[in-house]
Amino acid sequence: MPKNVSRLLIANGERLLKDALKDMGRHLEQPTRRAFLQRSLSLGGLSLLSGCSIVDEESVEAALMKVSRFNDKAQAWLFDPNRLAPTYPDSMITRPFPFNAYYDEDEIREVDEQAYRLEVTGLVADKHPWTLAELRALPQADRITRHICVEGWSAIGKWGGVPFGSFLRRIGADLSAKYVGFKCVDDYYTSIDMPTALHPQTLLTLTYDGQPLPPRYGFPMKLRMPTKLGYKNPKYIQAIFVTNTYPGGYWEDQGYNWFGGS
Amino acid sequence: MDNDTALIHPRWVRITHWINALAVITLATSGWRIYDASPFFPFAIPAQFTLGGWLGGAIQWHFAAMWVLAGNGLIYLASNLVSGRLRRKFFPWSPRAFIADIVAALKGKLSHTDPSHYNMVQRAAYLFVMVDSVLLVLSGLVLWKSVQFPLLRTLLGGYEAARREHFLAMAALVAFVGVHLLMVALVPRTLLAMIRGR
Asked: How far is residue A255 CA from its own chain's centroid?
């Protein structure tokens, strides 16, 4: 192969790889799972074993994922559907409430309110798409709760909207189904367990601090669960589906714990 | 066994000790990576000392090793209590004797003639590390499940307070490990005793 052609191919390949990594999660400092395991094996006494074929990256990774699935079950068992997260007075709201997504603030998606319809699919009786006006006409509730990020930081905010359990009952969802999944305008996706979906503090929120949800906090709607970590709370929701097939999630598929409970 | 008195550490102490050591190394190094995702002190832990590579990996290690630490720790504490070893080895404890032993240690005159007998400084250090580990587990529970353990959360002063307590308890444990390793280096036969029991 002529030298300049192969160079071109390599350059092209690198660009493709770069784009792919960017799509995977620009928010990550070290997006490759390989780096994670190379480093992990070089520490904690495991380096003694890395020379042997007993411990290889795939088996360590698989074992850790298995423990993470076990932790899902442990958390589902610990989860008390009647236990409420603490609520706070207005004076304790964190101002400004931080913006957080897998991309930077200048890439926030703007959703056209007139054209917007919330799609509802899967194991539900009533699959008609919802306008924002219809959702706003439903009984609303608001709560001031602590948002806990998987990174460790927390912030207190005030979200208002439709209690999600009452919404699921209204659309005739199969409440014995295992999962409720979410697809978002910004290509984010996640899924939650049915007991958390029915928790009294789980809200399909349309407002933040008494105002319509601004684009930076997920207009037109965000599912707010004070019983789960931030990445489990989807913003810019486009579609909701009820299913018994594990839907995963944007971060969950990369290694964050699926239950993500608090 | 022909000579019972020569046995310094029974087998269960040695096994739980080394399992605990592995769990602590894994939890500390992965915990540093988790801390680095959102530091609350004006410093971060250099990445080369951390485990997991990225936040998701560090959390996987941390939430796997936590079961080992907690399970192993419960076995250790229960065996210690039931066998009477806790009372025999770590008590009685007197502040006056503690100060006398500290002074002797600083003068380099603290005796090591009988490795099966802990002096007051050792008793204090080992009792401290037991209590500190319990605090690490409890504050960790509040971080992991702050909504599900409301009483514990309130006792520790809330989620954000628990983050700091978890970090400070870790720092105290790491400080203990530092001194512990230094002492082992000074009296290497204690390492042999923790491996072969005598």
From this structure: 12
A167 and A206 in contact (C-beta within 8 Å)? no
How is residue B54 annotated by DSSP? S
* Chain A residues closer than 8 Å to B67 by CB: 67
Residues B162 and B139 sit within 8 Å (Cβ to Cβ): yes
Interface ipTM: 0.90
Q: Mean of the per-residue pLDDT values for chain A?
A: 86
Q: How far apart are CA B115 and CA B181, in angstroms?
A: 16
Does residue A12 have a pLDDT over 60?
Answer: no
State pLDDT tens for residues B95-140: 888 898 889 888 877 766 677 788 888 899 999 999 999 999 999 9
Q: B10 at the A interface (CB within 8 A)?
A: no
Among candidates A177, A160, A171, which has minimal Cα distance to A224? A160
Q: What is the pTM of this model?
A: 0.86
A59-91: pLDDT as tens digits: 898 999 999 999 999 999 999 999 999 999 999
The pLDDT tens digits of the residues spanning A197-249 come to 999 999 999 999 999 999 999 999 999 999 999 999 999 999 999 999 999 99
pLDDT of A14 strictly over 60: no
- The helix (H) or strand (E) run that includes residue A144 is strand A141-148
Collapsed DSSP state (helix, strand, coil) of residue A229: coil
Q: Which residues of A touch B53 (CB under 8 A)?
A: 30, 33, 35-40
CB contact under 8 A, A75 and B34: no
Looking at 3.40.250.10, 3.90.420.10, 3.30.565.10, 3.90.550.10, the CATH number of the domain A87-254 comes to: 3.90.420.10
B interface test, pick of A28, A30, A36 with most B CB neighbours within 10 Å: A36
Q: What is d(CA B58, CA A191) in angstroms, rounded to the nearest whole number?
A: 22
Q: Is A19 helix (H, G, I), strand (E, B) or coil?
A: helix
Q: B51 touching A, CB under 8 A?
A: yes
Q: Per-domain residue ranges for chain A?
A: 3-75, 87-254
Whether A262 has its CB under 8 Å from any CB of chain B: the answer is: yes
Closest-CA distance, A158 to chain B, in angstroms, reads 17
> Nearest Cβ partner of B147 from A38, A149, A227?
A227
Q: What is the pLDDT of residues B46-83, one digit of tens each?
A: 999 999 999 999 999 999 999 999 999 999 999 999 99
Taking the C-alpha atoms of residue B143 and residue A95, their distance in angstroms, rounded to an integer, is 23
The pLDDT assigned to A26 comes to 40
Residue type, A181: G
| B interface test, pick of A48, A50, A64 with most B CB neighbours within 10 Å | A64
Q: Domains for chain B: give ranges and CATH numbers.
A: 4-196 (1.20.950.20)
